[in-house]
């Protein structure tokens, strides 16, 4: 993996019903999702393919995972130079570890972790010499925006800046706090943002927006296929249109399209 330390390199849908999720997202986003697991005999895992490259995976939540408290949702992977060193640094900064550093033969080394506010994500060092293009700001079918809602924006930013070198790149005021744009150390490209959660009982977490060609058509498909739009399509600064939704299994995601 040649992506810089602190880059978004993979996205993962956790679902109790892989076939239903496959049907839903292929229709809504336009992905091709493997019909069979790439890991026979182990956990069921399918790859999400955009037209020009792989974007992420689908992990089937089995009975043991569900009994352990796992729920449908989307998680992101942040690429790091050294998984073990990053996990040690994360713990020292007040984060927690859900899955310790582990090798996936032929794929890479990863850990499932959480920031001090309880937001779960992965860190990973891929073994492939190829760069990940799972995030591509303008790539159709790719993740186009990464958005954090947190219970403590100042502490959250300090944590991620310490671990990954992220920087703020301006922002805009919201009624409940600043919507702060984020980029990697020394980068010009803004790849996402963070903000305080709107209400104290609102869950914290990352929301990932995937790019589609037509926001109105995608909004209609979400409803037709048993999902629940959490907002109507709305225009955001820069002219794009977005909305949030919940898929039929309960995973929250976002979609973005040109105006």
Estimated share of beta-strand residues = 35-45%
Cα(first) to Cα(last) distance is 34 Å
Radius of gyration: 17 Å
Number of strands: 17
Mean pLDDT over the full residue set: 95
How many structural domains can be distinguished in the coordinates? Answer: 2
Q: What's the CATH H-level superfamily name of the largest domain?
A: 2,3-Dihydroxybiphenyl 1,2-Dioxygenase, domain 1
CATH class of the largest domain: Alpha Beta
Question: Tell me, what's the shape?
Answer: globular
Give start-end ranges of low-pLDDT stretches. Answer: none
Sheet bearing the most strands, described? 9 strands, mixed
Main structural class: alpha+beta
Protein name: VOC family protein
Organism: Sphingomonas plantiphila
Tell me the layout of helices and strands.
Elements (H helix, E strand, L loop, with lengths): L6 E9 L2 H11 L3 E2 L11 E6 L2 E8 L2 H5 L5 E7 L3 H10 L3 E9 L3 E7 L5 E7 L16 E8 L2 H12 L2 E8 L2 E7 L8 E5 L8 E7 L3 H10 L3 E2 L4 E2 L5 E6 L5 E6 L2
Parallel strand pairs: 1-4, 5-8, 9-12, 13-17
Antiparallel strand pairs: 1-5, 2-3, 3-4, 6-7, 7-8, 9-13, 10-11, 11-12, 14-16, 15-16, 16-17
InterPro entries: Anthracycline_SecMetBiosynth (IPR052164), Glyas_Bleomycin-R_OHBP_Dase (IPR029068), Glyas_Fos-R_dOase_dom (IPR004360), VOC_core (IPR037523)
Pfam families: Glyoxalase (PF00903)
Protein name: VOC family protein
């Amino acid at each position: 993996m040649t992506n810089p330390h602190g880059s978004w390199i993979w996205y993962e849908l956790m679902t109790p019903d892989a076939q239903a999720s496959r049907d839903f997202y292929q229709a809504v986003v336009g992905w091709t999702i493997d019909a069979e697991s790439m890991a026979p005999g182990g956990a069921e895992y399918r790859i999400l393919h955009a037209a020009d490259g792989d974007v992420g995976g689908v992990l089937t939540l089995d009975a043991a995972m569900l009994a352990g408290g796992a729920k449908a949702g989307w998680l992101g992977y942040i690429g790091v130079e050294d998984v073990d060193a990053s996990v040690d640094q994360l713990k020292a900064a007040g984060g927690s570890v859900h899955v310790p550093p582990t090798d996936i033969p032929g794929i890479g080394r990863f850990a499932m972790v959480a920031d001090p506010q309880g937001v779960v994500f992965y860190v990973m060092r891929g073994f492939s010499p190829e760069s990940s293009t799972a995030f591509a700001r303008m790539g159709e079918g790719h993740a186009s925006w990464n958005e954090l809602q947190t219970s403590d924006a100042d502490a959250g930013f300090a944590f991620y800046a310490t671990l990954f070198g992220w920087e703020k790149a301006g922002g805009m005021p919201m009624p409940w706090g600043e919507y702060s744009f984020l980029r990697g150390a020394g980068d010009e490209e803004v790849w996402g943002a963070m903000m305080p959660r709107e209400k104290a009982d609102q869950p914290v977490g990352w929301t990932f927006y995937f790019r589609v060609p037509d926001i109105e058509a995608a909004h209609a498909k979400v409803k037709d296929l048993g999902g629940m739009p959490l907002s109507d399509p709305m225009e955001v600064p820069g002219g794009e249109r977005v909305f949030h939704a919940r898929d039929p299994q309960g995973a929250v995601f976002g979609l973005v399209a040109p105006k």
